[in-house]
Amino acid sequence: MGFIWDGFRNAIVLLVHGDREVWSVTARSLVVSGWATAVAVLLGVALGMAAVRGRFRGRGLLLALINTGMGLPPVVVGLFLVILLARNGPLGGLDILYTTRAMILAQGVIALPVAAGFTVTALQTLDPLTEVQLRALGAARWQVWLLLLREARLGLLAGVMGAFGAAVSEVGASLQVGANIPGQTRVLTTATVLETGMGRYDVAIALSLILLALIFVVNLVLTIAQQRGAAPWP
Known about the structure:
The chain is mainly alpha-helical. It has eleven helices and no strands.
């Protein structure tokens, strides 16, 4: 058990002294996961609204696909993206394989169903009469959509947290499309896997602590924003 305590001690030293590589990996993780979350939330909210408000054939299938996607295996996403983005693949001309852009795409694909699923749940819990009342007051269609999203903001912000968590904690697809290249595509999760495999537990523990702290800070900010407009329990 001694190596575990040594790992924690050395991890604290790395964090306090601000190891350049550790903080570089941290910054890259935040950028990649931040962009992936932003794209996933924008598309997920639109997809969720279409699934709830749409009246088209296949709506049930769309909802089933969203729910299935919330448990989508990251390694499967990584596999298909590698095939698509490979030089001889359908999207090989983009030349983004083994770059952070490919990682953003992979994490975005994984986070998209999460954002869409939370959007569906948030909108379906609203009172159906809300839209009727808004239209009776003369609200235009786009105004109705914005007001409905505002009413569902608690659930939507929960979706943002879930999407960010799915993106930043993902490792399989990021390894496949990013290749864990030092100084280019290495992020906290892939670096942790590498350092653990090399037996460098102090660095692995440091990276894990930073990852947990990063997730906590982001979710703390989102939780404060979410609960600011929440009604207190009676």
